[in-house]
């Protein structure tokens, strides 16, 4: 999957299948465009739409960059940013679905290209940012801090995971107890462990409203929209019952009443326990 950028007047950002797409690339693309009011005080709005990939004239867009998927949109002051996973490492397969650790998240503005070459994740701990248009800190150049640097640093910390085919917000037992349906995992994510729910929520509503069942299945199968959990995922090879096998652990931190030790304690008014973690153990054998 690739993210591509159009001209700045007006600017458009498109998520489209790219050269590195799967054998069956999605036939649906996602296009973002900012709607800016005439008044300076008017906050910009994000116009997003799904459309057939073949209907997009890629000659109007730049070559773009490869990405793993979209985490949603976020507004900072009078700017709107699209959050995408630009780097991720495969941890292992859980229930025959690959699970990835997010290592870098980038935020691209719908208003301006001023931050396109500035990494949102700080490269120098002394400054909280990096020198403009460089990949390393240079004290002789002015430091430009990306507006989304704080949230990008959190999401790129190595504690967030996603899978394009599995619902990491539920255990396998919960999935087995649920009546079999044709719904995607994006339709049944547990909001307690869905950390980018508010960022991705508007796009999920758009997906539900504008796409047919077949188009949603096509879109979800290619992992354009990602749900992320916070916690830990790990797997090791082991000998089980005299044979070869694998043991995996998935821990997920609840996004409700989470926080540092002195800021999140006890139970809140809605009954959410502070820093609640659910841990699941998976065992599989190899014939």
Report on this model:
The chain has 287 residues and is mainly beta. 13% of the residues lie in helices and 36% in strands. It has a 7-stranded antiparallel beta sheet. Strands 4-3-2-1-5 form a 5-stranded antiparallel beta sheet.
Q: How are the secondary structure elements laid out?
A:
Layout: E1 2-5, E2 12-16, E3 28-35, E4 45-52, E5 65-66, E6 69-76, E7 79-94, E8 97-109, E9 130-131, E10 143-144, H1 149-155, E11 160-163, H2 172-177, H3 197-210, H4 213-221, E12 229-240, E13 243-253, E14 277-285
Antiparallel strand pairs: 1-2, 1-5, 2-3, 3-4, 6-7, 7-8, 8-11, 9-10, 11-12, 12-13, 13-14
Question: Which tags fit this structure?
Answer:
287 residues, 36% strand, mainly beta, seven-stranded antiparallel sheet
Short overview:
Helix content is 13%, strand content 36%. The chain contains 4 helices and 14 strands.
User: If you compute it from the alpha carbons, what radius of gyration comes out, rounded to the nearest whole angstrom?
Assistant: 20 Å
Q: What portion of residues belong to β-strands?
A: 35-45%
What distance separates the N and C termini?
35 Å
Structural class: mainly beta
Low-confidence stretches: 124-135
So what's the overall shape? globular
**Number of E strands:** 14
Widest beta sheet: strand line-up: 6-7-8-11-12-13-14
Question: What assembly state would you assign to the polypeptide chains in this entry?
Answer: single chain
Largest pleated sheet: 7 strands, antiparallel
Average pLDDT reading: 82
| Helical fraction | 10-25%
Tally of individual helices:
4
Order of helices and strands: EEEEEEEEEEHEHHHEEE
């Amino acid at each position: 999957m690739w993210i591509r950028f159009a001209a700045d007047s007006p600017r458009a950002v498109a998520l489209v299948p790219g050269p590195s797409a799967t054998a069956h690339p999605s036939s649906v693309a996602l296009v973002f465009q900012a709607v800016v009011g005439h008044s300076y005080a008017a906050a910009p709005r994000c116009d997003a739409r799904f459309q057939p990939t073949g209907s997009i004239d890629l000659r109007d867009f730049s070559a773009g960059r490869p990405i793993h998927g979209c985490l949603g949109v976020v507004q900072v002051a009078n700017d709107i940013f699209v959050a995408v996973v630009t780097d991720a490492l495969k941890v292992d397969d859980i229930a025959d679905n690959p699970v990835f650790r997010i290592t870098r998240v980038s935020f691209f503005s719908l208003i301006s290209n001023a931050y396109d070459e500035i990494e949102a994740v700080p490269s120098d701990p002394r400054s909280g940012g990096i020198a403009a248009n460089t990949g390393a800190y240079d004290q002789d150049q002015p430091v430009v801090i990306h507006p989304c640097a704080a949230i990008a640093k959190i999401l790129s910390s190595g504690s967030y995971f996603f899978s394009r085919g599995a619902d990491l917000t539920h255990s396998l037992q919960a999935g087995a107890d649920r009546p079999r349906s044709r719904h995607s995992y994006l339709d049944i994510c547990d909001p307690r462990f869905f950390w980018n729910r508010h960022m991705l929520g508007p796009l999920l509503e758009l997906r539900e409203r504008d796409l047919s069942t077949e188009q949603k299945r096509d879109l979800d199968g290619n992992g354009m929209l990602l749900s992320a959990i916070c916690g830990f995922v790990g797997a090791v090879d082991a000998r089980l019952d005299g044979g070869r096998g694998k043991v995996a652990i998935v821990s997920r931190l609840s996004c409700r009443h989470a926080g540092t030790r002195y800021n999140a304690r006890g139970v809140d008014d809605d009954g959410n326990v502070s820093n609640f973690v659910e841990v699941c153990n998976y065992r599989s054998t190899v014939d």
